[in-house]
Amino acid sequence: MHPQQESPTRIVAELDPSLAATLAELRDRFGLDFSLAAGSSGELMYRGADGPARLQPWQEDLVRVVAERGKAEFLGEEVPVALLAIPVERHASSTWVAIGAFLLRDPALHHDLTLAGDLLGRSPAELAPWVRRQHIWSGEALQRLGEAVRDKLRADRQIERLRREVESVSDNLSSTYEEISLLHTLTRNLRLTASDEELGRLALDWLMDVLPVESVAILYLPTGEDDVGIKGRRSESQLLAEGDCPIDKEEFARLLAATQPSAGSGPLVLNPPVTNGPSWRFPAVRSLSIVPLAESENVFGWLAAFNHADGGELGTIEANLLNSVGAILGIHAGNIELYRQQEELLTGVVRALTSAIDAKDQYTCGHSDRVAQVAVQLAREMGLESEQLKTIYMAGLLHDVGKIGIDDTVLRKPGRLTEAEYEHIKQHPELGYKIIKDVKRLADIFPPVLHHHEQWDGAGYPHQLAGERIPLLARIIAVADAYDAMASDRPYRRGMNDEKVNEIFRRGSGQQWDADVIDAFFRIREEVRAISSSTREHLRLDLPYHTPGTYSTAPESSASVAPTAGVGHHRAV
């Protein structure tokens, strides 16, 4: 029987069990079933309920192109339907391409589905009920999401590969009790919440108890410039040491240059007479064993043991233990680096979104960042925890992302809005939620983005929530948003003075805004004023604050139009 006619679950399991999980994840991300084609031949191997039933020869050619390029691309479009192809790599020598059918236009405007049916290999009669069930997508957003999902699947496979390597290293641990205890402790602490330096210090402490040496040290190499606020980036090398280390960071670098250890050639061991010869430039180093902290071809640092404690020579036992520890630390550093790359991807998404907001109305550049900063100060004053502070900062940056979908003429109108225009601009919280709702890493900020225009008395929008039914983070952003809208200059008015802003907040406390948040605002009034009057240059996703009540002038981002009610409500949206 042809593979397209087989049971979907059985076919996928026969091809590769991991493909079943991949298709399930695609279903979760997009809400429909994908078909599956072989990247090498373009042949359709599995027919999903929502994917194409068959492929034309020209489509098979395009499948091979998508597999070769490794990018999510459209295979074709026949109004109102389009086919999106996403490369799914099983392993280095085999690539599969998942193909989904999506609705890009209102089906009510297109009565003839013949061409669309040809594209999907279905008759118009088969296609019509399917079309009626589908969600209408933006082609650009669909392709971006396809690229993001492709990157996520690649990252998952990389993490799984690294996890298997960690397990492989663990399976080959030394038989001695001390070595097993050390390596078990290290593998147990392989988690992304622990920095590579933290795990490195733990390893050095244990190695000093196990090895007969005077000192052990790790030289961590730089991981990149800290230009986007990614936690854990090192812009310069770092030396960690236990015991009486005979060299400093600069000498360690010179020692590496002189001995030239290789990541692929195993441990480097040096003993007398080499270390007491005339060309040896490190007299304090009598014996030495160096191993790399590496994952695949990536070297993240070097682990070294210096000087046998009894004046003897370092041998294979010490070198093999160092090598095992170095492998674990290297894999962990690789995991950390992969996590950093994912954070940079998220940073890029936020940068793109905030830039898009700026492009809509450059006059309010900096609004979203100021709202984020004020919201963090308010949240800190109200006793919120560190993770909540990070969440509210991100929510502040993206609270106005829905204005990307608002008509420019309405958004930039200098005068009073009509009722129809006001109703249109009030759609931006729900539009913002729809823009980010498929980015699961941003799930915690969905509520404040959606509800930052709700009012304590229930007179807000979009859902007329009242009181504590409004999420706390949304209530905090509402006050920060209102403040910046009132205090900042706009094309249609000058910013209000402090007295006027204070009067409006006191009048709206317990009616428009949460009274507890307003009380916190007045307790940190001076800090808020400092934020309002400052400018920053580059967007950062770490919190730009060091201690409570202390404002840092770290670089800054761009942002959007200030939304708030209570300040001439037809403009304060």
Q: Can you walk through the features of this model?
A:
The chain has a 5-stranded antiparallel beta sheet with strand order 2-1-5-4-3, sandwiched between helices. Strands 7-6-10-9-8 form a 5-stranded antiparallel beta sheet, with helices on both faces. It folds into 3 domains: 143 residues, no CATH class; 169 residues, 2-Layer Sandwich (Beta-Lactamase); 173 residues, Hypothetical protein af1432 (Orthogonal Bundle), CATH 1.10.3210.10. Helix 11 crosses helix 17. It contains 20 helices and 10 strands. It has 573 residues and is α+β, with helices and mostly antiparallel strands.
CATH architecture of the largest domain: Orthogonal Bundle
Question: So how many helices?
Answer: 20
Order of helical and strand elements: HHEEHEEEHHHHHEEHEEEHHHHHHHHHHH
The count of strands amounts to 10
